[in-house]
Amino acid sequence: MKTKFLASLRLFICALAISVIAPVFGRTNQPIIKDLGDGNHMLSTQVTNNYLLLPIQESAPESTMQLLINNHQIERHTIRLAIDKIDYFVPVNLKDYQDRHLVVRFLHAPTTSLSWNNITLSDTFDKTNKEKTWRPIYHFTPNHGWMNDPNGMFYNKGVYHLYFQYNPYASVWGNMHWGHATSTDLCHWKQLPIAIFPDDMGTIFSGSCVVDHNNTSGLGAGTIFAFYTSTGVRQKQCMAYSTDEGMTFTKYEKNPIVTSTATDFRDPKVVWYAPEKKWIMLVATGQYISFYTSKNLKDWTYSSQFGFGEGNHAGVWECPDLIELPIQGSKKTKWVLLVNINPGGPFGGSATQYFVGQFDGSTFINDDSTETKWLDHGKDHYATATWNNAPNHRVIALSWMSNWEYGTHVPTMQYRSAMTVPRTLSLFRQGGDYYVSNSPVEELSKIRQHKKDFDWITVSHTRTKKLPNNQGAYELILTIKPNKTKDISFSLNNKDGEKVVFTYQFEKGKFSIDRRFSGIVDFSRKFATVTSIAISEAATYTLHIYIDKSSIETFDGEGKWSMTNLVFPKSPYTHLSFDAADSSYRVHPIYYTLN
Ligand code: FRU
Q1: In this predicted model, what pLDDT tens digit does every residue of 351-410 receive, in sequence order?
Q2: Domain containing 79: what range?
Q3: How many angstroms separate the Cα of 74 from the Cα of each of 238, 398, 421, 444?
Q4: Would residue 137 count as lying in a domain?
Q5: CB atoms within 10 A of CB 348
Q6: How far apart are the CA of 208 and the centre of ligand 1, in A?
Q7: 314 and 340: one domain?
Q8: Least buried of 28, 414, 469, 541, by fewest C-beta within 10 Å?
Q9: Mutate to test the pocket of ligand 1, among 148, 228, 238, 321 (most ligand atoms within 8 A of CB)
Q10: Ligand 1 environment, Cβ below 6 A
Q11: Are residues 290 and 428 in the same domain?
């Protein structure tokens, strides 16, 4: 009697718990999955939940997942379903298929039962941050999944739009979509639903957006146009347009709009050339940039190619951009062609090179072909692109903060890759030549925690300084008065004995950052490196160092160079150690917080 009572009490409590918890956490149910032999499986269901949650194992081989409605394929993705270990779950969004009958086919998928026992239908997907140690605070990262290049950035009506190369089905590259995020201040980012999905033409590679203010297309003033590479059998340039401020896009029915016989033919960047009221499209073509022109954004004519004998050719040219930059201290401008290259970067793998010159609406001419100019001198700065239509003629750039040498192996799992901080570009002159200055946007100063608390620390001998209240997201401003007879160095250290060492070598005219002992480095042989830059003599050196959990972006105080490097320390760097008996430092730590 007593046991019966206890059993029914238990049942009652369970039912109560489900009715209370279910609305909060959403309904979850286990679908029936039929085994069709050889790893082929099938799920057939009337859709009432928001998501199909898939268990992923990153080391598992890729298999195919097809979504069918009414016997027709509506989505097809490659997935790494778990074989013997679940790394994490990813959601397949079913919101558009509510109350429809959906068939999901898994082709050549695992033959073990782990995935088939763990696939669930659910109303919710847990987006809470599981990467407490390394997920940055003031840099953009996707909630989950893989991200590489920034794509299609445009500004309109007070909003900065950022699209990005996105795989929502694993935190490794594949299934490229255009993810979407927006910001009104370049510091706080809000991730929005995916904007452009793969189709029967292929997956969606990098590209750009423009705002058609003058209705050159005839589709209406203010229409947003996206240009992207569709992959598949051959890379080809396609277009899509949006009449709802870039939230959703309609693909142009006459796609593709630009084709070629080249195997590497991608990353269309479209810019407005005001003197001739026409559009220019740049497409990375092998190791060159092809230029096209158009009056209406739909019909494009080939005009020229740039790159023979110019710059670095140790890798494939990707993600070009063409910008007219103001020259500091003058009213003049010059054209700058950004060309990302992989491999071939100064420290191996991916990097951004640029050319300063002239553009007449059809041909770009490099004014200085003697040296390769790099936009950043670290290892983790790639696929740089600028915002279209930015306010007050600002030229704001963003880069993928990683490197193709090891980007898919860095030790985060819930997400992989962050963007750099947005940076303002301009030109400065040195030794008769022009260079691009690359500094953090001024908006970043608004998220400083201690706005008025200018806490300068003066250090005139060897010692270690604790950085108070340190959660791993901060900026350090350092001014250094060197004794030129000796090299000087300082390091960021944590309680686990890990460190990042910054060194000025005056005789060699060199500044370097050593991340060989910075934390976890063994996920790739190419990660533990020292990056460096040639510096000229100065009485005082100023550095702005932006640290955000797993990244260190170092900017020369005069805006002459930047150095961007990832780090994966076991705990935040809490101490600054100075190792320069005869030098004098002043340090100003600023903590960052996002409210
Ligand atoms: C650069 C790149 C682009 C391409 C995209 C694919 O990182 O290789 O050329 O469009 O990534 O994700």
Answers
A1: 999 999 999 999 999 998 689 999 999 999 999 999 999 999 999 999 999 999 999 999
A2: 2-122
A3: 20, 33, 37, 42
A4: no
A5: 16
A6: 13
A7: yes
A8: 469
A9: 148
A10: 148-149, 165, 176, 205-206, 229, 266-267, 318-319, 383
A11: yes
